[in-house]
Amino acid sequence: MRYDSFKEMVTVGKLHLFSIYTDMGAYRRIKWTVNAIAKLAGPRWQCSSEMWKLESSISNALMRKMLTGDGSNADVLIAVIGSLERRTPELIDWLDSLAPLPPHRTGLLIGLLGDEENKAQELDWTAKELIRCAQKTNRKFIWHWMGHHAMDDSDWLADSIEMLVAHKQPLPPEMILPEATANAA
């Protein structure tokens, strides 16, 4: 029993990370980002992560429904678009299908965009669409180039992850108002 009590003191909560990508080569970028988020969140947060290729959400209705549900409930959505040579309306359509987070929850939509050769061709359209999807699902949007040296530091993630875990942090029992406890009973 002591072990369980100690474990409860050490682990504050869980963060669910859901990644969707459009092209091969995304695995390394996603893995680095997931590890950086776990490190920034700290040892009191247990991070779970799932990664899906966009084609999986299009393959059949049952799979699309499952992935849409998982994506809708994720604390952090990571959308990886390696090439900005052309628009990716399929990804935006999938993001549009997600249910918004409830008003009391906070979340992130992280765009890992581009590569060294294709930085600007569809960046404007892609960023505007991702911002719109983030707002629609009650998430904060951040993005980062994923070209050469992009994974050298995680400073670009730090403030957003700090905000996420601070907002998600449960209140200690002594901070809960007696009226709220009585109303819940």
Number of helices: 8
* Helical residue percent band: 40-55%
Predict the CATH topology: Rossmann fold
- Tally of distinct domains: 1
CATH class: Alpha Beta
User: Largest beta sheet: what is the strand line-up?
Assistant: 2-1-3-4-5
Largest sheet, strands/sense/barrel: 5 strands, parallel
The secondary-structure element order is HEHEHHEHEHEHH
Tell me the name of the CATH homologous superfamily.
Flavodoxin domain
Structural class: alpha/beta
Which descriptor suits the 3D outline?
Answer: globular
Instruction: Give the overall average pLDDT.
Output: 82
Polypeptide structure, described:
The structure is a single chain. With 185 residues, the protein is an alpha/beta fold. It has one domain: Rossmann fold, CATH 3.40.50.360. The protein is 47% helix and 19% strand. A five-stranded parallel β-sheet has the order 2-1-3-4-5, with helices on both faces. α6 links the parallel β4 and β5. α2 (26-41) crosses α7. The longest helix is centred in the N-terminal third of the chain and has 16 residues, at 26-41. The radius of gyration is 18 Å and the shape is globular.
